[in-house]
Amino acid sequence: MQPALAAFLICLVLGLMVVGWRARARAIDARARAGLEALARGSAVELAIPTRRCRQPKCWGLGRQHGGTIPDFQKVATDLLATRPGLASLELQPGGVVSDIVPRPANARAIGFNVLNHPAYRPGASTTLKKPQAHW
User: Fold this and answer.
1) Rounded to a whole number, what is the distance in angstroms from the first to the last CA of the chain?
2) How far is CA 87 from the centre of its chain?
C-alpha cells in the first residue's frame, strides 16, 4: 500500500509543478502580447492626431496662445473626439498635471494626476515634452 501511496504523491507533486510551470508561461506570454497590443494602440492614437496638419483650427494653437490652458477645452475636445473615433478621451496637462479631461464624468478622478511623477507614465510624457509642438 505504501509504494502506491508514494507513487501517487510523487505524480501529484509532479503534476502540480507542470500545471504551475504552464500557468506561469501563459502569464508571461499574455503580458508580452498585452505589451505589443498597447504599443500598437499607442501608435494608432499617435497616427490619429496629426500634429503638423491639424484640421481643427483650435486644436494645438489654443494652448500656446493661452499659456497652456484652453478656455473652451470641453467644447474643443468634444468636437475633436467626435472626429476621431479611435480616441477614448482627451486631457489638458499643463506642466504634466491633468487639469481638464473629456469626457469628464467617466474620468473626473484623473484631474490633478501628475504624469511626470508616475513611474509608468513618466517616460512617455517626457518624450512628448521633448517634441517641438508640445512646448506651450
Assistant:
1) 80
2) 11
Q: How many CB atoms neighbour CB 115 within 10 A?
A: 20
pTM score over 0.90:
no
- Go through 40-60 and write b for each residue having 16 or more CB atoms within 10 A of its CB, e for each that does not: eeeeeeeeeeeeeeeeeebbb
Among all chains, which residue has been given the C-alpha cell 467626435?
82
In angstroms, the CA 121 to CA 102 distance is 19
103 cis-preceded (ω within 30 degrees of 0):
yes
Q: Is 70 exceeded by the pLDDT of residue 91?
A: yes
Residue 92 contacts residue 99 (beta carbons within 8 Å): yes
Taking Cα atoms as reference points, which of 99, 104, 89, 113 lies closest to residue 67?
Answer: 99
- Structural contact between residues 58 and 69, judged by C-beta atoms closer than 8 angstroms: no
C-alpha 3/C-alpha 8 separation (Å) is 8
